[in-house]
């Protein structure tokens, strides 16, 4: 029986936050990116790309065992010095800000193209980021609970795509073992954007109420994401064929649209409805992560104040790439650099943690 | 508390304010919009170089509502739009209509033959690009102008688009007609490696709209039309899970009809640089009428003969179609290229059309009778 | 003779004590005491003082004080005046234990107290007890003669159950407590008293089961009750507003009920009940969101039926909130999502209407709300007729005048009827109100507005705390009782959402029984 007045989350909630931050708008555009390079074996590339979140979870497990009560921000300050640590934390924060703006602008574009033709995109953007700001204003516990609930929505939405199995053609996915390893590896780099957001476990693992379950829940989360992404890529290619995937911006929606329900004319809007709710949650998670890091840097302000202050900034950044083409180009350019930064930053902190702890033992 | 109030009021004001600044893109309520039942595409050659596109729409018109709203008279009218590009036709159309038209309900998309010969690429591009347009509408080629087809009055339906939709929806019950002739199916067959689109062809004969064959495409241009009888065998080879009647006829009065469900499997091999396709067809079906074979249900040998004759007939017809395909149509209209691409690699810059036309194609048929019905009314 | 001397000695002795500064009641001036008591009560007209004499030989002066209409005169006559005036022995004389002698031998009332504190006397008088003051004695007797005119236990007016009991709470606090005490016979039932309100000094009781309820939560509730410092408390609804966490929220955080069986079930889960003198409602704290959608009938009927009805309620709630908003967004923005068979009749009936869709829906909703509120206030039959006839006439007339379309009336009507499915009155009011922001959001943003509206509602619910417990939570074990109602023998653990001391509900005998058979 946990008292709800403490600021702790259960391991199941951490799992939902982990998957919730990663599964966002990246899911719908994932097949496009990957099949450009790896053709019909894109789903194998996606599985290979799952190495990145797995590596992050591995580092997180090590850090959690050694320092169960300190999150990555405090550790980087401890090992790298205050100034350097804060600077690197700031870059880490800009990672989350980037994800917030990318998902927000992606969702806006998606919605204004498919459902809300009548709406000016900037207005919708203001509203969507407002939802993220309000969620972050409420704090961690409501956010964790909402992640729990919307996790179920995500499962429902992804199960729906299974229906495409009935309508597709197996030969779209063949030949499977025409393996060109170099192409597969290049394709897996494209999937980095979709796996981004899993870094959030580094911020929240000290807040777990049952710490011994961290490893299993983090692994389960990553496994869920990898299976979801690869199966969705597989199903999209299965139904559409790689030629059609190349032509459309959002190939998953074509596959989802193949479902015909008697009364409803157009399955698209149910999918969009559920998908918008899932993405509100992703934006809120990333927004909260940015505010959380900012609050760690500026200890005097509260999370509530910072949520409000950062709001115009996020809108400004999102509105600069409000069309699909420039958004994709920009993200393709900047995401690999951020991924490399994350890997380097986290590996350095982990190595120092291992060394320093051993050093302490030696001294004793 | 005062600080808190400020923290809430100012952002709220900013939000509300920015709302009203960012402009309005507005739309109207549904009853003030025109509902489109079917769209068409026509072409006129003013000179060999200058083409004028025409995109007629069939829209629903509502009769005057009386005191009791039971009898709502719905009929249709045609809105023409002519222009140098497909986009300009929209402008021209709006200048003739009193309401904005709303897409999303079109039941059919009718392309005239001339337009198809010129190329259906631009039409499909417009349909794909605009998410509002209905992807589950049916796509047909018609012999006359699309406008005439859409304005043809059919008794009992407000617009001919409704009739054409029903026509295509139910055609798959016979003639091995493909079940999916919607626009979405065209997305997966146009500009796809190894497949050429095959689209139903309708025309007006004796004041009735009827399906009179299939239009065969090479990439995005229509190159040939197969007749109703030929298209039966074409569809049998091109589609999986079709239904149709195969008949054996001895004399005008003695014949047997076999209503078959078909399934196919394609194997591909490379022998000496040439592709070698093997199409295995499997027909399972019911006997509908039989005044030809005596003791069909009782005698095993008679049954065997019947099945063999069916197989022979199907094989002969299919082979003649394949010859026609190689000589007359000159396009891969049964979709064999995709099997080759699946085996030998995609996006490898091979012209699968040419390869298929140069290949050897074998057909094996297996027929079996499942159902004899209630009994046999023989003498 | 010796007794007489003994009495004189007593008087001198008591006088000496008074000189020593021991403050007892003023012996020699019985009137002074009476004056002090009456001034503590305030209003002199309703206070009645009856002086009489006890005993024959040496009559002892005594005064009976009570408040008219709060005390039961029959009881006073029968139990106090009759024995003391008519049936006393001669052995009575002034002594220090006169009071206890009288109580033990002559006063035939079932409850008597001997007190010295005037504040206690005033407290008791306000509740309908009688105070007996005897001259020269510093103690006085408080006799229980409470009986005002109160309503009898009757069927609860607003909560009806087909198979449940027909008893409901009444205004009298003692009766309400007795209704609970009758059913929970375990000694761990704890009752705490509070007196709140400067002028009304209302009695409030906090009841919980000590071995089940969590101490931190009980302490939380106790602290909140103790802090209340207001002029008057006229009902339990006012107490609710002073102790709840989020007074600005739309959703109720305390569960108000008229039925004792609901209260008892809740006590078993580790909650506490607040009863207030003068209100026939009990307040159960802490309350969770999901329990407002559970009716007591669900537990008395078969589990499969109850599960289906619960699912129906869930569908009703979702429809009530979403349907008008979805209808509005479809006809205004995304007409292509309506199936074509519905669209053609819809368009033909909507042509030439006067009002825009938003105003149409809002005006019809407003008319329905007028009818409903009006029907509540009018007496009995008129109210019902008004709602029915008014609905028909106005709806039909609006159709004919081409103000609204039939589809709108169907949508609004369904949404209205859907709110009746919710068993708790407070929650159905809240759900009614939640519809309106949804409609406005849908008018601005279309379907995405509905998605955003749901997201905001969920966020709001998740961020609410009810007395230290999370307002909305879906714990895996509790799901047995939220969307469906599992078999009773399966629900052998208390719900986890509210912390409690003792997790196991019953001994698992049912499972053993089922396994054997």
UniProtKB/TrEMBL annotation, chain A:
It is a multi-pass membrane protein. It is found in: Membrane. InterPro entries: Spore_GerAB. It comes from the Bacteria. Its main location: membrane. The chain crosses the membrane at residues 12-30, 42-63, 83-102, 114-134, 146-165, 185-205, 217-239, 269-294, 306-322, 334-355. Keywords: Germination, Membrane, Transmembrane, Transmembrane helix, Transport. Belongs to the amino acid-polyamine-organocation (APC) superfamily. Spore germination protein (SGP) (TC 2.A.3.9) family. NCBIfam families: 2A0309. This is Spore germination protein. It comes from Clostridium aromativorans. The lineage of its organism: Bacteria, Bacillati, Bacillota, Clostridia, Eubacteriales.
């Amino acid at each position: 029986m946990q008292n709800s007045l403490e600021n702790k989350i259960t391991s199941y909630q951490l799992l939902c936050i982990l998957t919730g931050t990663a599964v966002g708008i990246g899911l719908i555009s994932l097949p496009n990116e990957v099949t450009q390079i790896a053709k019909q074996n894109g789903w194998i590339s996606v599985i290979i790309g799952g190495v990145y979140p797995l590596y992050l979870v591995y580092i997180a497990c090590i850090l959690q065992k050694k320092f169960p009560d300190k999150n990555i921000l405090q550790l980087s300050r401890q090992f790298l010095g205050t100034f350097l640590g804060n600077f690197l934390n700031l870059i880490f924060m800009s990672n989350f800000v980037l994800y917030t703006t990318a998902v927000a602008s992606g969702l806006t574009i998606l919605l204004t193209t498919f459902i809300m033709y009548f709406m000016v995109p900037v207005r919708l953007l203001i509203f969507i980021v407002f939802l993220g700001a309000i969620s972050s204003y409420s704090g961690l516990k409501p956010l964790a609970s909402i992640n729990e609930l919307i996790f179920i929505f995500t499962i429902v939405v992804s199960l729906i795509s299974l229906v495409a199995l009935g309508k597709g053609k197996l030969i779209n996915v063949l030949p499977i073992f025409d393996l060109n390893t170099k192409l597969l590896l290049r394709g897996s780099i494209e999937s980095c954007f979709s796996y981004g957001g899993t870094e959030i476990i580094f911020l929240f693992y000290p807040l777990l109420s049952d710490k011994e379950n961290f490893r299993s829940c983090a692994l389960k989360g990553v496994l869920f994401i990898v299976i979801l992404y690869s199966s969705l890529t597989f199903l999209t290619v299965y139904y559409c064929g790689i030629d059609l995937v190349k032509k459309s911006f959002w190939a998953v929606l074509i596959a989802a649209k193949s479902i015909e329900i008697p009364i409803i004319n157009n399955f698209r809007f149910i999918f969009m409805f559920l998908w918008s709710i899932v993405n509100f949650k992703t934006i809120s998670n990333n927004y909260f992560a940015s505010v959380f890091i900012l609050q760690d840097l500026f200890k005097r302000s509260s999370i509530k104040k910072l949520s409000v202050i950062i709001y115009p900034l996020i809108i400004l950044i999102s509105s600069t790439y409000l069309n699909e083409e420039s958004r994709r180009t920009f993200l393709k350019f900047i995401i690999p650099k951020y991924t490399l930064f994350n890997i380097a930053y986290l590996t350095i902190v982990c190595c120092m943690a291992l060394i320093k702890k051993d050093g302490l033992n030696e001294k004793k | 508390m005062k600080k808190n109030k400020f923290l809430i009021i100012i952002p709220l004001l900013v939000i509300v304010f920015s709302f009203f600044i960012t402009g309005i893109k507005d739309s109207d309520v549904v009853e003030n919009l025109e509902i489109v039942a079917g769209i068409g595409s026509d072409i006129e050659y003013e000179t060999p170089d200058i083409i004028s596109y025409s995109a007629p729409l069939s829209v629903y018109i509502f009769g005057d509502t009386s005191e009791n709203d039971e009898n709502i008279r719905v009929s249709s009218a045609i809105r023409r739009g002519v222009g140098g590009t497909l986009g300009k036709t929209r402008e021209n159309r709006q200048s003739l209509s009193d309401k904005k038209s709303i897409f999303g309900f079109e039941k059919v998309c009718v392309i005239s033959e001339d337009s198809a010969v010129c190329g259906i690429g631009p039409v499909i591009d417009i349909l794909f690009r605009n998410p509002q347009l209905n992807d589950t509408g049916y796509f047909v080629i018609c012999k006359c102008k699309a406008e005439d087809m859409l304005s043809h009055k059919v008794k009992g339906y407000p617009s001919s688009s409704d009739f054409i939709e029903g026509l295509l929806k139910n055609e798959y019950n016979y003639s091995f007609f493909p079940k999916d002739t919607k626009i979405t199916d065209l997305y997966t067959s146009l500009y796809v490696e190894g497949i050429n689109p095959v689209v139903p062809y309708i025309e007006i004969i004796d004041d009735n709209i009827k399906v009179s064959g299939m239009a065969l495409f090479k990439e995005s241009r229509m190159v040939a039309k197969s007749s109703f009888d030929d298209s039966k065998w074409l569809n049998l080879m091109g589609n999986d899970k079709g239904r149709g009647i195969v008949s054996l006829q001895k004399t005008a009065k003695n014949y047997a009809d076999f209503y078959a469900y078909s399934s196919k499997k394609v194997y591909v091999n490379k022998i000496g640089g040439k592709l070698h396709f093997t199409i295995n067809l499997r027909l399972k079906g019911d006997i509908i009428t039989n005044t030809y074979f005596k003791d069909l249900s009782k005698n095993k040998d008679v049954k065997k003969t019947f099945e063999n004759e069916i197989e022979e007939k199907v094989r002969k017809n299919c082979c003649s179609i394949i010859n026609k395909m190689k000589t007359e149509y000159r396009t891969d209209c049964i979709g064999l290229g995709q099997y080759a691409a699946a085996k030998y690699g995609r996006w490898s810059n091979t012209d699968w059309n040419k390869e298929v036309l140069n290949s050897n194609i074998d057909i094996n048929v297996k027929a079996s009778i499942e159902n004899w019905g209630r009994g046999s009314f023989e003498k | 003779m010796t007794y007489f001397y003994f009495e004189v000695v007593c008087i001198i002795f008591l006088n000496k004590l008074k000189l020593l500064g021991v403050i007892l009641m003023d012996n020699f001036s019985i009137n002074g005491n009476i004056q002090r008591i009456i001034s503590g009560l305030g209003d002199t007209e309703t206070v009645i003082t009856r002086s009489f004499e006890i005993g024959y030989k040496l009559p002892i002066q005594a005064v009976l004080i009570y408040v008219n209409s709060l005390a039961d005169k029959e009881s006073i006559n029968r139990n106090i005046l009759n024995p003391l005036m008519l049936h006393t022995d001669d052995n009575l004389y002034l002594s220090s234990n006169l009071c206890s002698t009288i109580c033990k031998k002559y006063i035939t009332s079932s409850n008597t107290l001997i007190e010295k504190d005037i504040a206690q006397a005033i407290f008791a008088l306000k509740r309908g007890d009688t105070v007996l003051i005897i001259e020269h004695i510093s103690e006085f007797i408080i006799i229980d003669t409470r009986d005002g005119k109160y309503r009898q236990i009757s069927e609860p007016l607003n909560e009806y159950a087909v198979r449940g009991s027909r008893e409901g709470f009444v205004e009298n606090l003692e009766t309400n407590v007795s209704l609970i005490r009758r059913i929970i016979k375990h000694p761990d039932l704890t009752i705490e008293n509070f007196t709140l309100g400067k002028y009304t000094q209302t009695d409030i009781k906090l009841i919980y089961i000590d071995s089940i309820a969590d101490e931190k939560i009980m302490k939380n509730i106790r602290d909140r009750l103790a802090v209340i410092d207001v002029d008057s408390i006229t009902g339990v609804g006012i107490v609710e507003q002073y102790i709840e966490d989020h007074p600005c929220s739309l959703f109720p955080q305390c569960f108000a009920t008229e039925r004792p069986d609901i209260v008892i079930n809740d006590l078993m889960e580790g909650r506490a009940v607040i009863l207030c003198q003068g209100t026939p409602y009990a307040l159960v704290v802490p309350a969770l969101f999901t329990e407002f959608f559970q009716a007591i009938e669900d537990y008395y009927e078969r589990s499969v039926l109850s599960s289906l009805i619960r699912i129906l309620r869930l569908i009703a709630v979702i429809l009530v909130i979403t349907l008008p908003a979805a209808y509005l967004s479809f006809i205004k923005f995304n007409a292509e999502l309506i199936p074509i068979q519905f669209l053609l009749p819809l368009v033909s009936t909507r042509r030439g209407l006067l009002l825009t869709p938003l105003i149409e829906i809002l005006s019809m909703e407003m008319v329905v709300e007028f009818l409903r509120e009006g029907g509540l206030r009018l007496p009995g039959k008129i109210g019902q007729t008004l709602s029915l006839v008014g609905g028909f006439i106005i709806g039909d007339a609006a159709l004919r005048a081409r103000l609204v379309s039939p589809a709108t009336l169907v949508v609004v009507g369904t949404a209205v009827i859907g709110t009746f499915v919710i068993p708790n009155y407070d929650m159905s009011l809240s759900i009614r109100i939640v519809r309106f922001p949804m409609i406005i959001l849908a008018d601005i943003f279309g379907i995405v507005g509905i998605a955003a509206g749901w997201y905001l509602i969920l966020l709001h619910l998740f961020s609410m705390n009810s007395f230290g417990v999370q307002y909305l939570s879906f714990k895996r074990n509790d799901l047995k009782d939220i969307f469906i109602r599992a078999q009773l023998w399966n629900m052998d653990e208390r719900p986890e959402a509210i912390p409690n001391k003792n997790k196991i509900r019953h001994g698992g005998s049912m499972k053993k029984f089922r396994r054997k058979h």
